[in-house]
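G., the chain you wanted modeled:
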Amino acid sequence: MLIARVEAIATALLVFVCLVPLSASAQSGDAAAFQRRFQEAEHALADGRYEDAVKIYEQLRAADQSVAEVHGRLGLVYFQEGKFEQAVPALRQALKLKPSLPNTDILLAMSLSELGEYKEALDGLERGFRRSSDARLKRMAGLQLQRAYMGLGRDQKAVEVALELERLYPDDPEVLYHASRLYANFAYVTMQKLSEIAPESVWMHLTAGEVNESQGGLDGAVKEYRAVLGLEPRRPGVHFRLGRVYLTRAHETTGDPTSSAEALKEFEAELEIDPGNANAAYEIAELHREAGELDQARAFFERALEHDAQFEDALVGLGRTLIGLGKPELALPVLQRALSVNASNEVTYYQLAQAHRALGHVQEQGKALAEFERLHREASSGSPASVLSRREVTRQKLDSKTIQ
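Predicted structure as tokens:
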């Protein structure tokens, strides 16, 4: 796995800085000619003409073995070309001649890492990641350090580096890609250990249930969550998970009354165990709302908000329920609270427009509809929203007739 070698050359060119005048006098008999040839090689390297650059640097190395910068430059070009077995001795010789050569130790460490020599690479990669002030060099060293820790079986350290890389470079696709691979592997190894230590434990069944649920294995998820309840009948959160599984089944089979009824039973069971579970109260409210049972829906939306006043979807659900009950004057402040939580929710603006319409607020209705249409156009041009939010609840969404 080669990490960002194309970017590496640009980074290295920046961090090697200007290395002329050379650190040692050329012993070729003509120092000025040596200097001119070195500059020719520098230009070739800067232009990406690596073959020309290597040819000149090798000639200079043959003419004078004592110039650290020539060995360093050769190592740099070899690294860029993926010739790590050649890069390592060149970089080592450069450091032997001039230990202070900027960032050469980091480039050597990255070359060693590419060759799988993780133990030897570790110190240099740590220096590059922890101490470098150059963001690109720090990023490269961090990715290689994460890889080295994985290669040495030090998964916890690798995860620490991945988390730090995500903090430093939150929108970097390569950082996110390598982090996701690491987390998946770490989760797999941890689950394997759990299955060996406690194969019939609550924790193993919970894990298996969550894995089945995430992969769409709904029957398997139900089986595992039921096994958890068999061991701990009053364990908080498990009935909610079961209810969510049944809701998913109901969403996949439109109008499935059996799955919806099972979901309602599970959410009610969750509230018996954990009366403060706002998510369960919300899901009960939403099921009642969809069934046209608006008084019950209002009661449970309000119950959810008693335990989480900033629960956006509960605020929207309560607002639209109050409109349905013919109480737009009560819906208006609720929907405005929802906008204070999230001012970019198209559903909230649509419901706000309906409340203003019912109250005869023509100008306000127009403004809300205009904002709804703008947000809806933006949402339509992007990826569709998932059925479940980060809260693991069913999102408030527009009725299909609204968007036709």
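DSSP finds 20 helices and no strands in the chain.

Shout if anything looks off.
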